[in-house]
Design a protein that fits this description.
single chain; 291 residues; alpha/beta; Rossmann fold; 4-stranded parallel β-sheet; disordered C terminus; Nad dependent epimerase, putative; Epimerase_deHydtase; NAD(P)-bd_dom_sf
Length: 291
């Protein structure tokens, strides 16, 4: 997402500053992007980070007394409450819109009944659930992201820090540095030697995806949208189509013209049961023909 966003911002003649702690992404493709300046910054060092943002902003002519503001700030890496708080302290009053990239996994930190509610009710119930349970899930990623959202909704001064939250499902597309999608492709290609195991629990579970370049295009469009219409809201972004893991594998099979995929379905109740099912079904391993 990040590389594509930088590319389309550059193509639209925006002056771009991107900040990280020094990690190299995208095979250094970012060096080919015009109008893009790389800055090293660490939000864990709050005072130094705030000074850095103030310095870069002033260099771009952006101050609390000027009429110029950052057109948009995109936060792909905000993971902890303290990191978002640090960004708020450094940029309040200096931006037109702050776009926080969250995850649909925040619903896993809540009562599952919340998913069945309408969007307005979801927002209310999520906040109530978070307040009741405090730090119960603080060690989990979805809880961290949920705490970040809570900070934006409850502890920011809205008139000087307009924000939008984009909740993303599993992201697929170019320059995916997780390796998950690529691993599935290689596994399917080698499934005759290494069969794919799907337990009963996830066999019928629907998966949501979003294409990385679609998210980048949306981020660009947010700049020109009426901020009063979109600010202080969370949006779930995903394909309309939800598929199971098995259906996902079959789509890969069709795309790569693979004749067969070897799937091993078993009931995962306990370790002993898994071993039993494995030995019992190993001799009659089913081959699912795609041709």
């Amino acid at each position: 997402m990040g590389l594509k966003l930088l590319q389309i911002l550059s193509e639209n003649n925006y002056e771009i500053y991107y900040i990280n702690r020094g990690k190299k992404y995208w095979n250094n493709q970012v060096k080919k992007i015009k109008n893009a300046t790389h800055i090293f910054g660490n939000r864990n060092e709050k005072k130094e980070y705030t000074k850095l943002i103030k310095y870069v902003s002033e260099k771009a002519g952006i101050t609390n007394s000027s009429n110029i503001k950052w057109s948009a700030v995109y936060d792909f890496c905000g993971y902890k409450y303290s990191e978002v708080q640090c960004t708020y302290e450094a940029l309040k009053g200096l931006i037109d819109i702050y776009v926080f990239i969250s995850t649909d996994s925040i619903y896993d930190a809540c009562d599952k009944k919340i998913r069945q509610s309408n969007l307005q009710t979801q927002q209310i119930l999520i906040k109530i659930y978070l307040n009741r349970n405090g730090n119960q899930f603080i060690k989990e990623q979805h809880a961290h992201k949920l705490k970040c959202e809570e900070f934006l909704y409850h502890y920011t001064q809205k008139d000087i820090f307009p924000f939008v939250i984009l909740r993303l499902p599993d992201v697929i597309g170019p320059f995916d540095d997780t390796g998950r999608f690529w691993a599935y492709i290689k596994w399917i290609q080698k499934s005759q030697d290494y069969p794919i195991y799907i337990d009963d629990e996830c066999k019928n579970t629907k998966i949501s995806f979003v294409f990385s370049e679609d998210v980048a295009l949306l981020c660009l469009k947010l700049i020109d949208m009426n901020k009063r219409d979109i600010s202080y809201n969370s949006y779930n972004i995903a394909f309309k189509e939800n598929i199971t893991l098995k259906q996902f594998f079959i789509k890969i099979v069709f795309f790569y013209n693979i004749d067969y995929i070897y799937l091993f379905l078993y009931l995962a109740i306990s370790f002993e049961c898994q071993q039993f099912k494995f030995k019992r079904q190993r001799q009659c391993l089913q081959i699912l023909s795609i041709s």
